[in-house]
Fold this sequence. Notes:
Order of helices and strands: EHEHEEHHHHHHHH
Bound molecules: glutathione
Strand order of the largest sheet: 2-1-3-4
Helix content: 40-55%
CATH topology of the largest domain: Glutathione S-transferase Yfyf (Class Pi), Chain A, domain 2
Structural class: alpha+beta
CATH architecture of the largest domain: Up-down Bundle
Distance between the termini: 36 Å
Shape: globular
Radius of gyration: 17 Å
Mean pLDDT: 96
Amino acid sequence: MKLINAKPSPFGRKVVIALHEKGIPFEMQWDIPWHEDTCVGHWNPLQQLPILIADDGETVYESSYILEWLEVRFPSPALVPQTADARLAMGRFRVLAVGVMDAIVRINFELARPAQQHSGKWLSRHQRKISGGIQEIGRLIDGRQFAVGDSLSHADLEVGSVLGHLDFLIQEIPALAAPLLGGGGWRSLHPCLSQYVAGLEARPSFCKATREMVKIDFQGVVG
Ligand SMILES: N[C@@H](CCC(=O)N[C@@H](CS)C(=O)NCC(=O)O)C(=O)O
C-alpha cells in the first residue's frame, strides 16, 4: 500500500492517522500538487492529494472516501460506529469539518492574490464559516472525549485534522491567525474544544502523523 501525500496536508494527515490506528503498513511518497512536476494528474483526475494505491493497484482518492474505503477493506479495528444514528452523527461532523477546511483553503488562496485584490467581504464570509463551523463542532462534542459515542471514529479524524491544521498554520505562518479567524483563535470558540483536541493529539496515531511546512508558490498558482 502506498500513500501519495503532501508534507503539510491536513487531508493526508487524517488518512495517515487511520492507517496507524488500523495498523496497516504503508509506504509514503511525498509530492507537491501545486508544482509543475507533481504526479497527481497521473493518479487522480481531480489532481489532488492524498492518493492511496492499494497492493493490487486500485487507486483511491479524496480523503474522506479513502477513510470509507479503508473501513470496508480493513474493518478492524472499526473507526465507524455500529448504529445508523451514530453513523449519521459522524457524517454531520464530517460535513462541518470539510466545510471549515474548504473555507480555510479559500481564504488561503484569496490571500495569495496581490493585496490590492483582496476582497474583505469574501474573507469575512469565510471567517464566518470557520467560526460558525467550529462553534457547532464544539456544541455537538459538548465536553466528551470522542465526537460520537465512546470510541474514536472518522468524526474525530475529520475534526482533529482541521483543528490541528489551524494550529499548524498559525505556528508556521503566524500572520494567518487573524485572517483565518478574525482574532481570538479557535480555542476561544468553544470551551470544550481545547481539551478534546489535546486528547486526540496525545494518541500515538496522531503523534506519528507529523507535518512539515514546505515552500509552495501559491502566487504562481493563482497569478
Ligand atoms: N477534498 C479533497 C481535498 C484535497 C486537497 O485539497 N489536497 C491538496 C493538497 S493538501 C491538493 O492536492 N491540492 C491541489 C489542487 O487542489 O489542485 C480531499 O479531502 O482529499
